[in-house]
Amino acid sequence: MPDATEEHNAAASPKPMSEKTNKKVTGIGGIFFKCKNPERLRNWYKDNLGLVTNEYGSLFEFRNTDEPDKKGYLQWSPFGEKTKYFEPSEKDFMINYRVENIEALVEALKEAGVEVVDSIESFEYGKFVHIMDPEGNKIELWEPVDQVFTDEYEGKTTH
C-alpha cells in the first residue's frame, strides 16, 4: 500500500504529455545564475578559465549529432543578484532548454497542467517561453535559430 506522500503525488500528477508530440527538449540552451557582480565574474572566468565573454556571458558552440554541419549554441550567463528575470522562482539559477515546435509543446504542457508563466516571444535568434516545475524552478524553453549566431561569429551579419 502506498504511503500518503505517494498517494498525494499520484493524485497531483497530471497525465504525461502525448508521445505524438515532437521532441520536447533537444538539449541545454543556457545556464543562468545570480551573482553579486556579473562583470567581475565574467572577467574572472575569462582570465582564469579562458571563456570568451561579452556583456551577456559566454556562448558555447557545439555540433548537432544528427546534422554535423549545423552548429548549435549554449549561453552561459551570470545575472545580478537582484534580477527579476528568474521570478516568480526564488532560486538563484535558471536552466534554458532547447526545444522543437514550441507552440505545440506549450499547448501540450498546458494540457498536462504545467504552469506556463508567460506567452511565447519571438526574436531573430528564436522563440522563448517560461514554465515552472513542481518545486518552483523557473525554466526557459527556447526554440533556437542558431544560424543567427553562426552568421554573427563568422562575420556574415551586417549590423
Task: Looking at this protein, list some descriptive labels.
flat; alpha+beta; 2,3-Dihydroxybiphenyl 1,2-Dioxygenase, domain 1; disordered N terminus; 159 residues
What would your notes on this structure say?
The chain has 4 helices and 9 strands. It has helices spanning 4-12, 38-49, 102-111, 147-153; strands at 25-35, 53-54, 57-63, 71-80, 93-99, 115-116, 121-123, 126-132, 138-144. The longest helix is centred in the first third of the chain and has 12 residues, at 38-49. Strand 7 and strand 8 form a beta hairpin. Strands 1, 2, 3, 4, 5, 6, 7, 8 and 9 form a 9-stranded mixed beta sheet that branches. The chain has one domain (22-153): 2,3-Dihydroxybiphenyl 1,2-Dioxygenase, domain 1. With 159 residues, it is of the alpha+beta class.
Short description:
By secondary structure, this protein is of the alpha+beta class. The chain is built from 4 helices and 9 strands.
